[in-house]
Amino acid sequence: MDFLPPSDRCLRILAVEGMDDAGQSAVDTAHHLVDAWELQPAEAKLVAGFYDYSLVRPRIRRTGLDAEVEWPCIETYTGTVPGTPISVAVMIGSEPTFGWPEAFDELLAEADETDRVVLLGGAPAAVSHRRPLPVQVTSEQGDVVSAYEGVESAYGEGSAGFLEVFAVDLAARRIPAVALTVSVPGYVAGTPSPKAILSLLGAFEDLTGLVVSQYELVEDARAWEVGVEEFVEANPDLQDHVEHLESVAETSELPEAKGEAIAREFERYLQHRRRDGA
């Protein structure tokens, strides 16, 4: 879909730990982009006054006998997408406790209406680990929904997380933004999920047209499936639950939808082969 900024502007990507990051899928996907594109650390944002340290704990890192305190913040990594002139800024960190409007101002201090923003998220859902993990692709902006095939209007009311509120704020600023939210099986939403990372990367590629190297993620995802399957088989009640999810999925899937999904996966496979020179 080529949801990309002009060559002189920036693609901004945000992932935060917290309620918007089931299975660490969003933050791990963002770190994967940083590594794949060899981005460099830039300034840290939200470094003071945005966190309740009794809820979002500092971390201690040790090197030999020396200890260092890492305070909660949003870390920024910048550079260009390899093989393109596209500037990118990936922001990763803890969801702030306080001052969300001020946090939005700080995160968007250098942004304008010609940038593009991708919000990465993960949500626990009634889905099976045995099947592809679906990704919702949504926007709060009608012009973005109209301009990009596959982007749907955001929906839902009530209490909201940081990314959902941020998406509304971005719409008010008229900065084009799309949220990618992967559904993570609720029964393993508290543990890292390589399969969810693969799903988010696939949706990101479909949205932007940027092919992202996946390194060992495919093997990690297979190992994750095997481990979760063993966990499920050891719990009869959970096994019944997963079987129910499977039956519901089989009933609701349409043949044409399956065909479209297979076509997208095959095209992505060909893109990776072309990039790898195979």
From TrEMBL:
Gene3D superfamilies, alphabetized: PAC-like subunit
Protein name: PAC2 family protein
Source domain of life: Bacteria
Pfam families, sorted: PAC2 (PF09754)
InterPro entries hit by this protein: Proteasome_assmbl_chaperone_2, PSMG2_sf
